[in-house]
Amino acid sequence: MPARRKISARQRVLAQWRGVDLEPQETARAVRARAVGEVLPRLMTELRMDARRAEAEIVKVWNSLLDPNLVAHAQPAGLRKGTLFVDVDSSVWLSEIVRYRRREMLDRLQHSFGKGLIQRISFRVG
Asked: To bridge 113 with a disulfide, which of 11, 51, 99, 117 should be the other Cys (CB 3.0-4.6 Å)?
């Protein structure tokens, strides 16, 4: 014979009101509380917080590190697999940057963030 479990007054009233005792199913479905230290690392990975933080830092450094004329016409749009994507506001500036300024921009960004984070820059009119 299974051991009798202690039933609280609340559980007794709910079971009586419902006409059925659903407490075992509710207990089985209940999410058990976990420590923050157990949940947080996985959550940070799923939300890609490290990548988002790096992207935000790139925007800050971009605005202070590069020539204000370039910053006025080109802004970083995202970072994926070592490639920094940059939106340029016109094809004239795109041509100027790709021909004459790309290497300088890449060197400055790599100096600030390391060669592992930013390996290439891809420009597009946008």
From this structure: 117
**One domain, residues 58 and 101:** yes
Structural domain total, the chain: 2
Claim to verify: residue 52 and residue 27 sit in the same structural domain: no
Q: Is residue 4 part of a domain?
A: no
Determine how many CB atoms are found less than 10 A away from the CB of residue 74: 25
Work out the burial of residue 84: count CB atoms within 10 Å of its CB; fewer than 13 is exposed, 13-18 middle, 19 or more buried: buried
Mean pLDDT, residues 1-5 taken together: 55
Distance from C-alpha of 28 to C-alpha of 24, rounded to nearest angstrom: 6
For 109, the domain range is 48-125
Confidence grade of residue 4 (pLDDT, cut at 50, 70, 90)? low
The answer to whether residue 65 sits within a structural domain is: yes
Residue 1 domain-assigned?
Answer: no
Distance (Å, whole) CA 74 – CA 71:
5
Helix, strand, coil percentages, rounded to 5, for the chain: 60, 15, 25
Q: What is the reported pLDDT for 65? A: 86
